[in-house]
Write a structure and sequence with these properties.
Blueprint: E1 2-6, H1 10-19, E2 25-30, E3 42-45, H2 51-58, E4 63-66, H3 73-79, H4 89-95, H5 98-107, E5 115-118, H6 121-131, E6 135-139, E7 149-152, H7 158-165, E8 170-174, E9 180-188, E10 194-196, E11 200-205, E12 208-214, H8 221-238, E13 242-251, E14 254-261, H9 271-274, H10 279-288, E15 300-307, E16 322-326, E17 336-344, H11 347-350
Parallel strand pairs: 1-2, 1-4, 2-3
Antiparallel strand pairs: 5-8, 6-7, 6-8, 9-10, 9-11, 9-13, 11-12, 12-15, 13-14, 15-17, 16-17
Helix pairs in contact: 1-10
């Protein structure tokens, strides 16, 4: 089996590493010739709009997938002429536009914060009159890790915010005073079978994921059932194949969908050591047409992202339950360089080992 992956960053790298035990070959395509995935498998470099380069990349592949959602839909559709592409291109189209994504959720029974699409300053003014303050102004496309969004606290900020994010089409969302942020990772195979990982609790700082705990502490069965039901609606509507992540705001016992990622996801990195089958292996199993593996958690996990250029203390390697993953990327502010996962039989067991990781929470 030969699998092509659009994107050669850390997600493509970890999918490639998961492929080796399955006797599956992986080929990456990335605009950056030094993408970190190239350290572990074959890497083709080129522009996503260079269809001849994409054709060469696709030669001999059995199936194609992608590691991030900002790949041009046209490129993915063109590649579908040479090999099956999973998740289907419609998943990219929906996930790339926040307005289309929120509308899709609502159409398929998944609750979201209230939202309004805006095309000009007058429309922005009308939107916040309807939604109230505070509100969140976002670009409809290309926002990630907290980029492309501004919290609006009163009317005096509207013009400056519009100048900063406009004149492109934007979306305004009602501000949600959530209790915590949760995510669910689901995987659907070609034959329609599904598996769900436990709900994960996530902590973000400056719009970037810092810590994930799995299974989510104090997560009720009804909350898990609700998240799985919402994910099932999305999987079926898109005729999805592969791993899908949906991020939620939890408000009491209610879940509001914030966004989805049609790919393996940062909040699922704990699954490498913390689940019977990692999200990376299950994504490969799904897109390649293999049976899905179990998504059951092995005890309890806490995952920390390593971000920026902070030096790693050697004490991390002395933590009994720690599993360190570095991505081979050059340090720079805000960049994800790796992660550490602690795994044990309870969160209480892991608490004494958290102190050496406190520097990862600025």
């Amino acid at each position: 089996m030969k699998v092509g992956i659009l994107g050669g960053g850390q997600l493509g790298r970890m999918i490639a590493l998961a492929a080796y035990p399955l006797d599956t070959q992986v080929r990456l395509f990335d605009p950056a010739a030094d993408a970190c995935g190239g350290e572990v498998t074959e890497l083709h470099s080129g522009d996503y709009n260079d269809f001849e380069a994409l054709r060469r990349f696709a030669d001999g592949l059995d199936v194609i997938t992608y590691e991030f959602e900002n790949v041009p839909v046209e490129a993915v559709s063109r590649l579908a002429e040479y090999a099956p592409v999973y998740p289907p291109p419609i998943s990219l189209k929906v996930a790339q536009d926040r307005l289309e994504e929120k509308s899709f959720f609502r159409q398929h029974g998944v609750p979201t914060p209230d939202f309004v699409g805006v095309n000009n300053l007058e429309g922005l003014t009308q939107a916040v009159e309807r939604l109230g303050f505070p509100a969140v102004l976002k670009t409809r496309r290309m926002g990630y890790d907290g980029k492309g969004q501004i919290i609006l606290r009163d009317g005096s900020e509207l013009e400056a915010a519009w100048r900063q994010l406009g004149p492109s089409q934007l979306i305004v969302e009602a501000f949600v005073a959530f209790d915590r942020e949760l995510s669910i990772l689901a995987v659907r195979a070609r034959d329609g079978s599904t598996a769900f990982y436990p709900l994960v609790e996530n902590l973000h700082r400056d719009g970037i994921l810092r810590v994930s705990r799995a299974p989510a502490p104090n997560g009720s069965q009804s909350l898990t059932d609700r998240a799985e039901e919402f994910a099932e609606h999305v999987l079926r509507a898109l005729e999805y194949v592969g791993v899908l992540a949906i991020e939620f705001f939890a408000v009491g016992d209610n879940l509001l969908a914030n966004e989805m990622a049609p790919r393996v996801h940062n909040s699922g990195h704990w699954t490498i050591e913390g689940a019977e089958t990692s999200q990376f292996e299950n994504h490969l199993r799904a897109v390649a047409g293999f049976p899905l593996g179990s998504a059951r958690a092995r005890g309890y996990s806490i995952m920390y992202n390593i971000i920026g250029d902070a030096p790693l203390p050697q004490s991390i390697l002395g933590i009994t339950s720690a599993h360190l993953h570095l991505y081979g990327k050059a340090p720079r502010p805000g960049r994800k360089l790796g992660h550490v996962t602690l795994r044990g039989d309870s969160f209480a067991e892991l608490e004494p080992e958290l102190a050496p990781l406190s520097f990862l929470l600025p």
